[in-house]
Amino acid sequence: MAPLIAALGAIRGWLRRMTTASPSRFAVLVFLTLIAAFTVLLSLPIAAADHHRTDFADALFTAVSTICVTGLSTVDMGSHWSPFGHVVIYLGVNVGALGVLTLASILGLVISKRLGLRARLIAASDSNPMRAHAGPVNESQTVHLGEVGALLATVALSTLIIEAALAVLMYPALLAGGVAPLTALWEAPYYAAMAFTNTGFTPNTEGLAPFTHDYYFLGLLMLGVFLGSIGFPVIRNLMIFKWRVRRWSLHTKLTLITTTTLFLAGGLVFLLLEAANAKTLGSEGAFDTFFQSFFLSAMTRSGGFSTVDIGQLHGSSLVVGSMLMFVGGGSASTAGGIKVTTLAVLALAVASEARGRSSVHAFGRRIPSDVQRVALSVVAWGSTIVAVSTVTIAQLTQLPVEDVLFDVISAFGTVGLSTGVTAELDDPAKYVMAATMVMGRVGTVTLAAAVAATSRKRLFELPVERPIVG
């Protein structure tokens, strides 16, 4: 008994040292541990419908896609998994939706029995990438340390309440769609979880085909995706200040404005590009085409559900979809991508530079230069990850590079839409795609901070010299 207690004490001490030395690296460790655990669960014969062990590559890929709340799959999600497998996936997407850093903070809370400073630092970093770096953080952070406990409560309560409400509203729609009452009792919370977590898995082989013209059901999916993609800090800010817009934080304003703008612009562009495409939206009526265009716009932001064959979209539409997927949703949300606030900060910086302003302002607030540098770093890292993954997978599979690029961006942005490439991947390419999902979900800033665990302070400044740019 004494050796066991000593071993547990040693493990606890190691975890404490890990959280102190590098919270972001500790968070990544928690994330990878979850992926390993769910890979084991999905590899069990009981998890497959035919009660045979799922291939390791497919089990790993599904586990990564589940924990990363992506929605890409290399097997038929409706027919391959048993009820036990579907329950594992359902639990996995809800765990993954908490976010790697928020999840790590909860584990830190369990270890230390209280939400100490280290756990607060980890949780705060999920809502503000600046927290993943050493050094001072200014007052413009999205979530202050003192608010982290309330934020964690918001995460848990909002997830439970929103998914439960969506499930209740979806149940009659499933019955109207011909789903058996008992089956609908399972599918309603499943669809609700997949919508709010922005995953996009469906529990049946037909997918959304039975609900293609059910605007009520599709509208609920869009609502769930929207609520999940705006982020927990925004949800909490709206709960506190409601319609008192002037009291909203700058982060909330930028998130809602950018999200709405991209949704409307994407819907209009898809309507323009696909209205004449008989293989996608062109065969529908006027209202159907209009609605499906905006549904597609909402799903390319990270939702992952689809009522059309993505592989039949025009190349121009695939480019637009790739751009929307790369941006993704809000910070500290269930969505992926570089985040809408990153895009907003960069757009404001470009506009300020064009006007000759020395600083970036928005809604009566100044955005400091360190936030702008982080935004630029996120885009640079994200672009690099996408480029390297695309080249690697295209070389391994010799598939059309434009289709590979779309699926890679879908993996990086944890979206889940596919042109059909993902289902054709061989095992080495599956591993590359899985790594892309992990890097996209963990976050480029957190990943960089985890790799560069040590930071050095410069005690002197070098002479200034300005290179020619542009």
What is the topology?
Layout: H1 2-21, H2 23-43, H3 56-67, H4 77-80, H5 83-97, H6 100-112, H7 117-127, H8 148-176, H9 181-196, H10 215-229, H11 232-241, H12 250-274, H13 286-303, H14 315-327, H15 340-354, E1 360-362, E2 365-367, H16 369-397, H17 401-412, H18 427-442, H19 444-451
Antiparallel strand pairs: 1-2
Short descriptors:
470 residues; mainly alpha; 19 helices; 2 strands; globular
What coarse outline follows from CA principal-axis ratios?
Answer: globular
Distance between the termini: 68 Å
How are strands sequenced across the largest beta sheet? 1-2
Radius of gyration: 22 Å
Given helix and strand content, the structural type is: mainly alpha
For the secondary structure, the number of strands is 2
DSSP strand content: under 5%
Helical region count? 19
Task: Write up what this structure looks like.
This protein has 470 residues and is mainly α. The protein has one domain. It is 64% helix and 1% strand. The protein has 19 helices and 2 strands. The chain has a two-stranded antiparallel ribbon with strand order 1-2. The longest helix is centred in the middle third of the chain and has 29 residues.
